[in-house]
């Protein structure tokens, strides 16, 4: 839980004692590479703080292909946030790309946490404002950049993903085939 405590302290300062009290609202879960934390269509009411590892968030398109919409690595929160907030079936799957440990906060636990420790609302608001801004920026880049430029932007700004995420998932995330990604990578080497 040390990573979560440090993450919270990036946004507001809390004492060791307060963090120990807050820690009771969270639980742990680990998954091996390629195991699912969540499958599309399952009832869902959890948020995950990635303690170690990497996950992809995806859905299955009408043509049966997996479409990756996001990744999450250490010190990032992830979920199917609409399903979490509405306590309904998930529209996405969350799968471990490598062995991954998460700290879990259920919807009920979050509501109780915020009642007992209202200052945690400030933490979650700051985290989600930052995440929403990143999402807006990604959408802007999808409209502005060519497909090749999108890959180079991703490669240059998120090198940790290039090293850790299989190329077919990066291609899916960027909206093209693995073969096209391979062509772009070959061009950049020559």
Layout of helices and strands, plus pairs?
Blueprint: H1 2-11, H2 16-22, E1 27-31, E2 36-38, E3 46-52, E4 54-60, E5 66-73, E6 77-78, H3 81-86, E7 93-96, E8 100-106, H4 107-116, H5 120-144, H6 147-157, H7 159-164, H8 167-174, H9 178-189
Antiparallel strand pairs: 1-8, 2-7, 3-6, 3-8, 4-5, 4-7
Helix pairs in contact: 8-9
If you had to describe this structure to a student in words, what would you say it looks like?
- The structure is a single chain.
- This protein has 190 residues and is α+β, with helices and mostly antiparallel strands.
- It has a domain of 115 residues: Jelly Rolls (Sandwich).
- 50% of the residues lie in helices and 23% in strands.
- It contains 9 helices and 8 strands.
- The protein has a 4-stranded antiparallel beta sheet.
- Helix 8 crosses helix 9.
- The longest helix is centred in the last third of the chain and has 25 residues.
- The chain starts with a helix and ends with a helix.
- The model has no long low-confidence stretch (mean pLDDT 93).
In short:
The chain is built from nine helices and eight strands. The protein is of the alpha+beta class and 190 residues long.
Describe the biggest sheet? 4 strands, antiparallel
The helix-strand sequence is: HHEEEEEEHEEHHHHHH
* Topology-level CATH name of one domain: Jelly Rolls
Share of residues in helices: 40-55%
Mean pLDDT across every amino acid position: 93
The count of DSSP E runs of length 2 or more, i.e. the number of strands, is 8
Poorly predicted ranges (pLDDT <50, ≥5 residues)?
A: none
Approximately how much beta-strand content do the residues carry? 15-25%
Please compute the radius of gyration using only Cα atoms: 18 Å
- CATH classification class of one domain: Mainly Beta
Structural class: alpha+beta
Write out the strand line-up for the largest beta sheet, numbering strands in chain order: 1-8-3-6
From the spread of the alpha carbons, the general shape counts as globular
- Architecture (CATH level 2) name of one domain: Sandwich
CATH homologous superfamily classification of one domain: Jelly Rolls
Distance linking N and C termini: 45 Å
- Please tally the helical runs, counting DSSP H or I stretches of 4 or more residues: 9
């Amino acid at each position: 839980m040390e990573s979560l405590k440090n993450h919270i302290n990036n946004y507001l300062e809390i004492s060791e004692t307060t963090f120990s009290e807050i820690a009771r609202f969270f639980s742990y879960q680990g998954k091996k590479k390629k195991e699912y934390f969540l499958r599309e269509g399952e009832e869902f009411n959890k948020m995950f703080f990635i303690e170690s590892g990497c996950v992809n968030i995806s859905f299955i398109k009408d043509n049966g292909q997996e479409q990756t919409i996001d990744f999450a690595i250490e010190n990032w929160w992830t979920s199917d946030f609409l399903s979490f907030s509405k306590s309904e079936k998930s529209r996405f799957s969350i799968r471990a790309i490598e062995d991954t440990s998460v700290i879990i906060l259920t919807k009920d636990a979050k509501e109780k946490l915020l009642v007992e420790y209202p200052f945690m609302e400030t933490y979650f608001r700051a985290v989600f404002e930052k995440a929403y801004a990143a999402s807006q920026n990604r959408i802007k880049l999808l409209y502005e950049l060519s497909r090749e430029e999108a890959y180079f932007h991703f490669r240059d700004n998120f090198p940790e993903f290039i090293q850790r995420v299989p190329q077919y998932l990066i291609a899916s995330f960027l909206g093209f085939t693995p073969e096209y990604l391979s062509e772009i990578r070959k061009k950049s080497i020559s």
